[in-house]
Design a protein that fits this description.
This is Haloacid dehalogenase-like hydrolase domain-containing protein 3. Belongs to the HAD-like hydrolase superfamily. This protein is α/β, with parallel strands linked by helices. It has eleven helices and eight strands. It has two domains: about 5-15 and about 110-235, HAD superfamily/HAD-like (Rossmann fold), CATH 3.40.50; about 20-105, Haloacid dehalogenase-like hydrolase (DNA polymerase, domain 1), CATH 1.10.150. Helices cover about 45% and strands about 15% of the residues. It has a six-stranded parallel sheet. Helix 1 packs across helix 2, helix 2 (about 40-55) crosses helix 4 (about 70-85) and helix 4 packs across helix 5 (about 90-100).
């Protein structure tokens, strides 16, 4: 039976947009602009450590902890460079500010294959659409820069809402905003835990975008799995 869906909510990172290059490459280029040689691999590794520690210490970009997301990210960038051997405060501050703004532009983000076509087809078929993403408040601007913003009625980020996926309250906010009951809504994302399982926990339908990487995580039933975004409408309309 065809699903009677009225609302589709979307994850963004690695569902609709991805980074053009590894974080370490972007950081290394910025360092190079200041005459500093730092290895991209070293920076990528430092970034993973620092980002993990900062996320545990100040979840959801320091939301509710008196920290702005910009300050949260500036700290991450500076600590990443310090861990990779750069210690001069003036240059650390400059690089951190530059990178914070760079990651707000289409220069660092690219649209995933099939995303534009799929979003356009969903809009043409009359689905209402929104974004539900664990992202900071730069997201709306990034979506505009990448020419995707116009597909969506609303953009909910974990920073703005105050709850991060898999917390069901961010999905409930989307349902409330659109006035659509959960059984007439579906979420599309690439994380089993944060997207697929979390949306189902509030009673929504859910589709799991599965790029080639299959982990050890539990599997969604095949009728909920998207090998590519292009498979979405066929699954909905089956």
């Amino acid at each position: 039976a065809m699903l009677r869906l009225r609302l589709l909510t979307w994850d963004v990172k690695d569902t609709l947009l991805r980074l053009r290059q590894p974080v370490g490459e972007s950081y290394a280029s910025e360092a190079w602009a200041h005459g500093l040689r730092v290895q991209p691999e070293a920076l990528s590794q430092s970034f993973r450590e620092v980002y993990g520690a900062q996320s545990r210490r100040f979840p959801n970009y320091g939301q509710g902890r008196g920290l702005s997301s910009q300050q949260w990210w500036v700290d991450v960038v500076k600590q990443t460079f310090r861990l990779s051997g750069v210690h001069e405060d003036r240059v650390l501050t400059l690089m951190a500010e530059n990178l914070y703004h760079d990651f707000c532009s289409a220069r660092n983000w690219e649209v995933l294959p099939g995303a534009v076509e799929t979003l356009s087809q969903c809009c043409q078929r009359g689905f209402r659409m929104g974004v539900v993403s664990n992202f900071d408040n730069r997201l709306e601007n990034i979506l505009s820069q990448c020419n995707l913003r116009h597909h969506f009625e609303f953009i909910l980020t974990s920073e703005d809402v105050g709850f991060a996926k898999p917390d069901g309250r961010i999905f409930e906010k989307a349902l409330h905003l659109s006035g659509v009951p959960p059984e007439q809504a579906a979420h599309v994302g690439d994380s089993y835990t944060q997207d697929y399982r979390a949306a189902r926990a509030v009673g929504m339908h859910s589709f799991l975008l599965r790029a080639a990487r299959q982990g050890e995580e539990p599997e969604a039933p095949p009728e909920h799995v998207l090998p590519t975004l292009g498979h979405l409408l066929a699954l909905i309309e089956k």
